[in-house]
Design a protein that fits this description.
This protein is an alpha/beta fold. Helix content is 49%, strand content 13%. The chain has one domain: Rossmann fold (3-Layer(aba) Sandwich). Bound molecules: thymidine-5'-diphosphate.
Length: 220
């Protein structure tokens, strides 16, 4: 694919949105077109589904309804935002993607990790990130840092421990496509390690204004 698709995953309060922003700034400075997005959301339909999923009125939603709505938001996101952006050469940075469903609905809610992964693969026609950065944090620390309370945060400690274990299992199973970083390090230090890993999956950057010093055809 011409562009690149990078995902940030992690439990509550892991600092995903901060890292998304820092990476976006670094990539824009290097001449890339960057699209920052999130799940659930990223599209008008996805944001409407987000309201249904995370709004106050949805407490007690059946687990399968929840899993299908996350998958529906993801289907819209993959088809109408992520794929077209990557196809034109942009770098897409998403705050959460498929592994969040595997961890929250598959593992923590007990619907089955493989079944939920399969549902999302179907929803996205198999769109796999080039790199998934897992920001790993002890849930007891992360929950204390999370600013935007949502109904997932009210779940018991065992739920969040299940989420964390699932992310780490997925990463361990495909080390080439994951980077696991301790989220309790200073944000700039985490950002530097993310940028280093992302370099391997980046498209060639757009030439800088003024032409730069590229030598088409190369020299010996
Ligand atoms: P959000 O406010 O974006 O939380 P965070 O800042 O932690 O990312 O809310 C997203 C919530 O939805 C979060 O608790 C994780 C949960 N979630 C799932 O349960 N399944 C999913 O597939 C996704 C994408 C998110």
């Amino acid at each position: 694919m011409p562009g690149a698709f990078v995902v940030f995953e992690g439990g509550e309060g892991a600092g995903k949105s901060t890292q998304c922003r820092l990476l976006a700034d670094a990539l824009v400075a290097r001449g890339h077109e960057v699209v920052v997005t999130r799940e659930p959301g990223g599209t008008a339909i996805g944001e409407a589904i987000r309201e249904v999923l995370l709004g106050a009125g949805s407490r007690g939603m059946a687990a399968r309804t929840e899993a299908l709505l996350f998958a529906a938001a993801r289907a819209e996101h993959a088809a109408t935002l992520i794929r077209p952006a990557v196809a034109r050469g942009a770098v897409v940075l998403s705050d959460r993607y498929l592994d969040s469903s595997v961890a929250y609905q598959g593992a923590a809610r007990g619907l089955g990790e493989e079944r939920i992964a399969e549902l999302s693969r179907w929803a996205t026609e198999g769109l796999v990130p080039d790199l998934t950065v897992v920001l790993d944090v002890d849930p007891t620390i992360g929950l204390g840092r999370a600013r935007d309370a949502n109904r997932m945060e009210a779940e018991p400690a065992a739920f969040h421990a299940g989420v964390r274990a699932s992310f780490l299992r997925r990463a361990a199973a495909s080390p080439g496509r994951y980077l696991v970083l301790p989220a309790d390090r200073p944000p700039e230090e985490v950002a530097a390690r993310v940028l280093e890993a992302v370099r391997d999956v980046l498209p060639a950057a757009a030439p800088a204004e003024g032409g730069g010093d590229a030598h088409p055809g190369g020299s010996p």
